[in-house]
């Protein structure tokens, strides 16, 4: 059995223009029989395709609001069936007493990244960040008091947190304590990501550093991690410095608890990874 070469008309049908440049579509990139699969299999595929996102959060103390930049989970807008599955895994979160929750959030999949934006570094607002989060508007009476407390614990189930790595030469005296207190507040934390400042200016046309992007573009982009391009010994030293700083704050806390006659709750430092961050624009 021989296969005839495609005609010019068939070849033209497979052309896809990306950024004004013609590219040949691969006919095997699409699966048109998905809707004919058994329902249980389709639902399993949807659940397995849930992405691990990076949610970049900034708190405005003047407006008492939290702004979160993150791409909307694609399953919410793929089809009715996928949206039903996605809504079982995501809830609107990061509301405050002055602003409604607007960001879909899954504490088991998403990483919460809080960059060091203030001139004061990681200040008291960072340390008490969780106190600002109210998942439902209490003043609107949408839920009872008990339901609100249950909803607000969603962020307590967070497994992955990212913060900026701060060089000792520019670190403020209070930052180590604030970071240790913030991390301690997540009892189910499995991972801490230290984010390095991206000093590489030679990005491709579709990739930029977080700090160089206008804030209104973050919602139209995908934030992802990449391994730092540094010598292994440099990365190891950064990890060691962070660990020593954290343990120093833990020792101080233990001594204070002993002096006050209070029980000291041991906090085991989870896995610490060092990454660079990049933002890829969604076409």
From TrEMBL:
<protein>
    <recommendedName>
        <fullName>2EXR domain-containing protein</fullName>
    </recommendedName>
</protein>
<feature type="domain" description="2EXR">
    <location>
        <begin position="31"/>
        <end position="112"/>
    </location>
</feature>
<dbReference type="Pfam" id="PF20150">
    <property type="entry name" value="2EXR"/>
</dbReference>
<dbReference type="InterPro" id="IPR045518">
    <property type="entry name" value="2EXR"/>
</dbReference>
């Amino acid at each position: 059995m021989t296969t005839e070469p495609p005609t010019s008309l068939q070849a033209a049908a497979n052309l896809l223009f990306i950024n004004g440049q013609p590219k040949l579509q691969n006919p095997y990139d699409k699966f048109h029989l998905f809707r004919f699969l058994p329902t249980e299999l389709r639902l399993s595929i949807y659940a397995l395709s849930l992405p691990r996102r990076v949610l970049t959060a900034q708190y405005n103390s003047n407006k008492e609001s939290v702004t979160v930049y993150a791409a909307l989970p694609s399953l919410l807008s793929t089809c009715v069936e996928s949206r039903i599955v996605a809504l079982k895994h995501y809830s609107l979160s990061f509301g405050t007493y002055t602003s409604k929750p607007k960001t879909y959030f899954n504490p088991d999949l998403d990483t919460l990244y809080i960059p060091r934006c203030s001139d004061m570094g990681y200040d008291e607002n960072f340390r008490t960040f969780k106190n600002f989060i109210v998942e439902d508007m209490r003043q609107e009476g949408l839920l009872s008091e008990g339901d609100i407390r249950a909803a607000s614990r969603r962020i307590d189930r967070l497994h992955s947190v990212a913060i900026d790595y701060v060089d000792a030469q520019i670190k403020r005296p209070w930052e180590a304590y604030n970071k240790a207190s913030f991390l301690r507040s997540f009892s189910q934390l499995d991972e801490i990501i230290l984010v390095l400042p991206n000093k590489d200016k030679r990005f491709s046309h579709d990739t930029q550093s977080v700090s160089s992007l206008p804030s209104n573009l973050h919602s139209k982009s995908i934030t992802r991690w990449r391994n730092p391009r540094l010598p292994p010994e440099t990365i190891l030293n950064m990890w060691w410095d962070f660990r020593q700083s954290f343990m120093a704050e833990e020792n101080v806390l233990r001594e204070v608890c002993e002096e006050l006659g209070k029980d000291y709750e041991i906090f085991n430092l989870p896995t610490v990874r060092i990454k660079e961050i990049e933002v890829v624009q969604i076409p």
